[in-house]
Every structure is written in structure tokens, then in C-alpha cells.
Amino acid sequence: MTATRRRPEPGEELPVGTRQSRFSRILVLVGLGALVLYSIAPVWWLVVSATKDQRDLLYTNGLWFGDFNLFQNIEQVLEYNDGIYLRWLLNSLLYATVGGLVGTLIALAAGYSISRFQFPGRGLLLGAVIGSFLIPYAMLTMPLYLLFSRIGLVDSVWAVLIPSFISPFSVYLAKVYTDGAVPEEIIEAARIDGAGELRIFFQIVVRLMSTGGATVFLLSFVQNWNQFFLPLTMLRGEDKWSLNLGLYFWNSKRVEAGVDLTALVLTGALLSVIPLVIFMVAMQRYWRTGVTLGALK
Amino acid sequence: MSITATRAEPTGAAATRRGPGRDLRRTSRWHTLRALKGAAFAAPFIVGFLFVFVVPVGYAVYESLFSERSSGLGIGGQERVFVGFDNFTRGLQDGAFWASVGRVLVFACFQIPLMLSLALGMALLLDQLATRTAHRFRLAFLVPYMIPGIVAALMWMYLYSPRLGPLTGVLELVGVDADFYASEMLWVSMGNLLTWHGVGYNMLIIYGALRAVPREVFDAARVDGAGELRIAWSIKVPFVRGALVLTGMLAIIGMLQIFNEPLLFRQVAPETVTKSYTPIMLIYYQAFDSNDYGYAAALSVILALIVGAISFLFYRFTNRAPS
After folding, report:
1. pLDDT reading at B306 higher than 60
2. Section B15-39 average pLDDT
3. CA distance A82 to chain B (A)
4. Which of B211, B303, B313, B212 is CA-nearest to residue A142?
5. Per-residue model confidence as pLDDT tens digits over A25-73
6. Position B322 pLDDT exceeds 60
7. Residues 31-90 of A with CB under 8 A from B
8. Helices (H) and strands (E) in chain A — how many of each?
9. Per-residue pLDDT for A88 more than 90?
10. How far is the C-alpha of B178 from the C-alpha of B172, rounded, in Å?
11. Which residue ranges does the record annotate as region Disordered (chain B) (predicted)?
12. How far apart are CA B217 and CA B8, in angstroms?
């Protein structure tokens, strides 16, 4: 990525000099169509299945609707086991939102510090941040479980929240964004005007970093929403579970106890995906830049 | 105070940069004070990092030197004893552990090249389209990536199900009798699931790298009479080699730590997906099923070293190859 990067105008037609035959254009479209089908068809199946009752799931074509039972299914999901599903939904939101917000603030401060200040150990800190990308998560989660059980944090929301506050990847992204988005002149000027360092950070840096901060928040929100190993290890009581853990449990119960919870699992899975997909489609500009930037830097 | 210049403006903001803004009249004490204030911004992260990363890693290494032994006749319960490197010798000789590492690596050799080829194909096809159309297709390709891994695995488990899923029936129509849960098919089933879920993310990175290449390069080749296929293979692919190396490395690191998908498949095929199917599953069950934390910790240290070594080798190997 260099300054020579050219942003094509929206709606721009094919590059000059492209001499694509009709045949190759069709070939490109067929290829793309097949790939879209591969990406979307399984989701379509999930949507269709969530509208079916237990009997239709077994006896009707999986790719088309049977009797429309979506609302009964949703009702069943929300009422099953005294509405535990809603509880899991709220827990997932709590882990993703609080973990994401606190994690982003900590990461922005650390990224700003690494990017703009020369203090002893700065290089070591940056090295530790990047090196930690290679540590297998099981190597962290298990000892963390033992430590948390000593101080009585296991099976509490903190056991999931505290680790999600600390994300080396977010710090790295925040550093890269600070490098690019916070001009040193503005900070110098504020210092000369007598602003304290804290005030400079909260009133100038955080505002200049709104795009970068949004990206960091989104990526950590999604990561916290998706995590499975950490809650699986730390949480025992089902009232603290996240949606992922709950759906996993419903599914294992479906297979083990012989109780048919299939419609429950499928509808629950679809419901858990919809808010996240809407959120990500709406915010795609932010996480897209984050993914490519984090990978290519 | 020196500012390391970065190569790109991530937000597109045209931030101007200047050299070291040092004012010589300021005393060095003032500078130290400012540096300390600056370091204070990193303090919350440093404290948390120590607590959540450094201490656990240290604790894992410490724990790996101990073992739980039944005392006497097994009446007195378990007792923790210092065993030195015994857990490591045991781990290095543990056939089940190395089998799990080998299993995952062999799987990686098939699944990762396939997934990356598919992602590269997607990116190259997108690159043939007008920007606005390309963005619509890109969003469709990213839909699987937006679905949490656990939900994706659940969904495919049902799609594969002979009773509920449409796949077995569709394949029967063309005369293929497929049992996706059978032990020899399980890696194919899991590979397809991982590819479906991961291809969008890799496409995004590769496509990003492709769009960063100045278009003039391709235009010049076209003027010289190169066909689109030739341009794709001889110019575009070499340009995104860096992105391919990186996505490959991330995929290998992820694959060595695969856990969620096999754990879910264990629900339908417990005979095939044993407790030692993948390294992390083995470690997980050693810790929480057999309560052998010391051994689990030793295995996790060995796994960390394997991950580090393979990443290093992969990086050296791919960076040395002629482009």
C-alpha cells in the first residue's frame, strides 16, 4: 500500500484497453455466480429451516419452505427453559459490548503511547505485542483458569470480560492508526497552549482517531461475540453463558438425550446470526479496512 | 523524539508528518517527565498484559514441572509433586499427541492451498468487474465470514446430516452415496466447512493487496497485447504473493489450534473424533477431564514451540523462494 494507490471512482467502468470477449465475460460471471451460490446457499437453507416445524424439517425439501412456522419457532426459542435464550443473548451483548469498549479504550491509549512517546522499554513492549500473536490460546486460557479459580473469579462474568479487555492485536492496530491519523503538530500546539497530557488524549487524540477507534471496537466486538473456548473453560452456570455456548449445549442435548430440539437449535442459530450480520453489513467499511490493514502492515 | 514514518494513511486522512520536533531549549528532565507521562498511557495495557499473557505463560511453564500423583494406596487423594522435565519427556514420546499434530498438519496441506486458491480466484474474478459490481459480489462472499464459527459449524453439521440435510439427497440424485459423518469423509466435511467459513476473509486480504497495485501496470501489459489470463497469472499473482504468504501463515497457525469444529463433530462421530483428535482437544481433555494440568501445560508449551517453529520456517521458506 503506497501513496500511489488510486481509488477508482464509484461506477467506473472496466479499465482502459480491456478487450474482453463476450465469452470470457460470461465465463467470469458464471464463476462468480457459482461462488455466490456456494457462499449464500447454506445460509438460505438455515433461513428456510427456521420456518419449519419438526415434521417438515424431516419430510420436506430442505431448500424450499413448508408450512410457515417461523413465529411459533421463535416463540419456542424465547420461552424454552424460562427464557434462557434471552439471557444468553444479553450475556453475549454484555461480553461483546463492554469487552469491546473497555478493550478499545485501553488499546487506543497504549497505541498512542507506543506511537508518540519515547520511553524506555517501548521497543520491548511493541515486540511483546507482536510476539504474543503466536501464543496458542490454550496456553493462556488454561493457566488463566487455574489463576482465576484461586482468586475466585471462575464462573463469573469477569472471567470472560477481563481477558477480552486486553487485545494485543487492537493495540497494534491503534498504533498503526495513530501513526497515520494524529499529526504531531496538533499535539505540540496543544502542549504549548498548556493542555495536560490526559486532556490532549481525551479531547484531541480520541477524536482524531474516531475512524480507527470504530474499527478497533468493531473487530474486538466481533471477536468477543464469536469466542467459544474461553467461556467454555471459565463458565459453569448456564445463566452466564454466551449464545455460542448455549447453542452448543442445546445441540449436544439434542443428540444425547434423544429429545428433538432440532427446530430450537436451528431457529436459535438463525436468531443469533441476524443482529450480527446486520451490524457487520452496516459497518463493513470499518472492519474491512481493519482486516486488510492489520494483515498487510 | 523520533516518529517512525509509516507507509500509508489508513484512514485516508492526509496527515502531514514532520521530522523530530525537538526543541533544544527544553531540558532533558522535562523530556523524561513527558516520556513517563506517555508511558502511563500504556500502563493499563501493560498491567493487563502482564496479568492475562505474561503471568499465565509463566504459570504454564511452572505448572509443567509438576504432576499429580496418587499418594500411598490412593486413599489420601492427589498430591502435587515436582517432577522436573518428566512431563516434557512424556509429551515428546506421546504417540497420541504427535499423531494429533501430524493429522492436523496433513489436513492443513490440503485444506489451506485449496482455500487460498479459491480466495485468490474470487479476488481475481472480482478484479475483472467494474468497482460497484465488484463491491456487491464482495459483500456476498463475506456473508459466511460474518457468521460465528460455532454457528457455521452447527449449520454445516445439519447440512451434512443424512436425515435432515439436503446434501445427501442432492448427491444421491447424481448417483453419489456420501456419508459425511463417516470416518474417511470427516476431514472432507470439516475441510469444506473451514473453507466455506474462511474463504471470504482471505479473499478480502488478497483483493485488498490486488487493488493496491497501480492499475497502470496492468494497462501497460494490455497495451503490449497480454491477455487477461496471462496478466492474472504473470502479473497479478506475483503482486499478491506477500498477501498469500501472510494468509497462509495465519491459516497454519489457526489450523494447529483447531478446536471448535472437531469438538462439535465429536457430537455426531465420537468414534472418529476422539479426545486426542487435534492437539488442543488433547490438551483440553488432559486438563479438564483427566485433571492432569501439569501434563496439559507441558503439551501446551510444546505446541507453542511447534507453532513458533513452523511459522518461522514457513516465513523463511516463502520469503526465500524466487518471485
Report:
1. yes
2. 64
3. 23
4. B303
5. 888 999 999 999 999 999 999 999 888 887 777 777 777 887 888 888 8
6. no
7. 31-32, 35-36, 38-40, 42-43, 45-46, 49, 57-58, 61-63
8. 15, 0
9. yes
10. 8
11. 1-24
12. 20
Query: B-contacting residues of A 275-294, CB under 8 Å?
Result: 276-277, 280-281, 284, 288-289, 291-293
What span, in angstroms and rounded, lies between the C-alpha atoms of B10 and A211?
A: 9
Subunit contact A42:B1, Cβ cutoff 8 A: no
* Nearest CB partner across the interface for A15, out of B118, B201, B219: B219
- In contact, A200 and A173? CB cutoff 8 Å: no
Sign of CA dihedral A210, A216, A218, A224: negative
Q: Do the beta carbons of residue B75 and residue B59 sit within 8 Å?
A: no
> Using the beta-carbon criterion (under 8 Å), do A184 and B151 form an inter-chain contact?
no
Find out whether B259 and B284 touch, Cβ atoms under 8 Å.
yes
Structural domain count of chain B: 1
Q: Is residue B166 part of a domain?
A: yes
Which chain A residues are Cβ-neighbours of B115 within 8 angstroms? Answer: none
Residue of A129, A139, A224 best to disrupt the B interface, most CBs of B under 10 A: A139
Long-range contacts of B304-312 (CB under 8 A, 24+ apart): B304/A134, B304/A135, B304/A136, B304/A139, B306/B101, B306/B256, B307/A134, B307/A136, B307/B253, B307/B256, B307/B257, B308/A134, B310/B252, B310/B253, B310/B256, B311/A134, B311/B249, B311/B252, B311/B253
Q: Which H/E stretch holds residue B70?
A: strand B66-70
For residue A154, the distance in angstroms to the closest alpha carbon of chain B comes to: 14
| Chain A residue numbers touching B5 (CB-CB < 8 A) | 179
In a domain, B82, yes or no: no
CATH number for the domain spanning B280: value is 1.10.3720.10
Query: pLDDT tens for residues A200-242?
Result: 999 999 999 888 899 899 989 989 999 999 999 999 988 999 9
- Among B158, B216, B282, the residue to mutate for chain A (most A Cβ within 10 A): B158
Instruction: Encode pLDDT of B53-110 as tens digits.
Output: 999 999 999 999 998 776 555 555 667 888 888 999 999 999 999 999 999 999 999 9
Q: Do B199 and B147 contact (CB within 8 A), yes or no? A: no
In degrees rounded to 5, what are phi and psi of residue B66? -120, 165
At B319, list the grid cell: 520469503
What residue numbers bound the domain in which B276 lies?
93-320
Q: Which of B7, B146, B240 to mutate to test the interface with A (most CBs of A within 10 A)?
A: B146
In a domain, B84, yes or no: no
Q: Which of A43, A165, A177 sits opposite B48 (nearest CB)?
A: A165
Q: Cβ of A39 and B144 within 8 Å?
A: yes
Grid cell, residue B274, equals: 476422539
**Phi, psi for residue B228 in degrees, rounded to 5:** -60, -40
pLDDT of residue A1: 39
| C-alpha B203 chain-centroid distance | 15
**Rounded to an integer, what distance in angstroms lies between the CA atom of residue A35 and that of residue A37?**
5
